[in-house]
What we know:
The protein is mainly alpha-helical and about 475 residues long. The chain is built from 21 helices and no strands.
Amino acid sequence: MEKMEKVKKRPTTAFAVIGFLLIIAVLVLLINLGVNTTVSLFVATVVAAVLALCLNMSWNDIEEKIKSVIADGTPTFIIVIMVGMLVGVWMAGGTVPALMYYGVKLISPTILVPLAFLLCSITSIFTGTSFGSVATMGLAMVGVATTTSIPVPLVIGAVVCGAWLGDKMSPMSDTTNMASGVSKVPLYDHIGSMMYTTLPAALIALVLFTIAGLTYSGTSIDTAKADLICKTLAANFNINPILILPAILVLLVSVFKLPALLGMGLTVVVSTVFSMLFQHLSFVELMNYAFTGFKIKTGVAIVDPMLNRGGVTSMTELLVIFLVASVLGAIITASGILDVIAKNVLLKIIKNRIMLIVVSLVYCYIVNFLTAGGQIVSIIVTEQTFEETFDSMNIHRRVLSRTLEDAGTLSAPIVPWGVATLYVMSVLSCDTSYIKYCWFIFIVPVFSILCAATGIGMWDKEGKKLWGKKD
């Protein structure tokens, strides 16, 4: 007698809500008890797998979903690896030391905070990577901040806001392309739609960062400390303005619209050549620095922590966390729990376009916090859940794609246990105290809701403006 194949059950509303809360509770409880983030995510993943099996989901189906999600995340894995290599090479080759040297010499404390926001925004827009922006321009800005009395978490907050502004708006960014792609919205229509929420939020954030900088304008750079840093850098590196060119190259590759992976790879190669020419390092030395990170003992305690960083090995924990988080997101998505919660609970309270945007934003946040800052998972799951509702309410999908980024992309670095937050903490040697200064990230969703309320930046399915039209 043939074995009857089990049919996968659709989760009931009660099962979905309880299962959802159970996964969150396990994750949050373990992290708050001090359990390692990777292990906490792994345990939450086991819980999610048990719930999926309780729904008669076959293990083969679970594995196929995991493979699919991990495959989608492969470009991000490679970018993270190359960022680690680039930081190691830039440290050894003098690119970051040169940025720090001239930054300490030229930047006034009065403009440091808003300048950190602007420069990291520009770097990230041109490179398409928030991680790369944090590890290069962000690192230089934080190095300068250590010579002043300006709170370093404030400067890091400005750096993170700028880095994720570019990640959200750059045509080279994986999240920008993902949000437009899954929503079936042309890339530049998607970017144009985001202008309505991003630009006003960026201007307000810039004003706030400027005011915060002016608050400390009475202070000056610690001259003795600044001189010590500059002398130490000059003693250990051949400091030359030309060394900044590899950083500029990161911007140029995007002007020529090279894919992010190709552009990053080209930058690694050129940076290696510059390092060999200006610091007289051998190829073998540089490759070792690219893998294990740059190591130096200058004898100056405040300088060594700034320089001893980078390398593929510095990204190992991040990569493992990203892998486990991807598995967790895949299992939760495959189980159908989030889909049931959205359709049986969330969608029932949507009565107008304001509630549609609010619920979509909240849903993005929930998925992001649940999956440890999984931007891609948040974007994909939220789009799949709400696309039909946007269509039925006669709202153009470019509004949906924008909403996915306003919450899904931007919330990644404010998830305390998230991959992006851990990356920032690792690269900039800080704790989560910077999150309260991420003003841009908190302001953008406000403009998402204002657009829905006023109709400005809203279109119907045919692409006609809803400016001034009643909801």
